[in-house]
Amino acid sequence: MSASTPDSLGREPSFLARLRGLQADGALVFITLIWGVTFVVVKDALSYADPFTFLSLRFGVGAVALSALAGRQVLNPTNLRHGALLATFLFLGFALQTWGLTFTTPSRSAFITGMCVLFVPLLTLLVFRRAPKPAALVGVALSAAGLYLLTRPAPGEGGGWLNLGEMLSLGCAVAYAAHITFTERYASKEGVLGMVAVQLWGVALMSAACLPFVTRRVEWQPSLVMAVLVCGLLPSAFAISVQTWAQARTSAVRAAVIYALEPVFASIYSVVLGYERLGAPEAMGGGLILLGVLVAELGSPAWAWWKSRTVQGPG
Length: 315
Prior knowledge:
- The protein is mainly alpha-helical.
- It is built from twelve helices and no strands.
- Helices cover 75% and strands 0% of the residues.
- It is globular.
């Protein structure tokens, strides 16, 4: 049970529990910033290595680092079982996104992948038998609209919808949504590093298993080595560990809305570096995503406060 949901007796969480939930959500915003900023680093790294070689190296570095910190936690049977399942979802997300990009445009891929924010409430209902709160659903809708404006395909880009590339990207969105949803179920307040290390080993090994079936390419440039180290330690080892810690204290739906900020941070960083310029629709999309996060975060407490004021009367 997350800190933001009622307990088994239907009681609302205490102020302290809500505060812990807000701390967890703040941690998720921070790692989403890391993911958004390092998107440019990954894009540059793929100029020197094929995707599966890069994934093998990146997650391998993260796995070694976390295993050294986690020690025997890595061999815990529960961590092995849960980590292996989460690793499968995580690998499928990366693999399907990469494969889909060979058949569709980056903007279409980004938009469809971002739609995982819509799948998380559905999976939450199926897995937990728990309907998300109305404020969270409003936040999901606002974030989805913002994602469309921020990452929508330009006129004349690619063919029609639901070709092979779009279907693969849709599968990627479902895989990421499953990872977010099951992370809430399996995230423990103890042994986080061990379970995340298992995930990183799983993604690294599954990526390496794909190498015989793809065209391998590696140019050992300093920028590639730096990208492997940075991405292995920050957005992989560190960020996924924080994600697992935080999702033991907040809901999957709120987490998914926060993760919708990733393209916002990526776009801002890309503009700062001079890679692209954002127009009014993109700026409006970013604003809608931010509004969606605020509604998901503050909507339920604000509504509860308003109801209490209505019942008790002013003063």
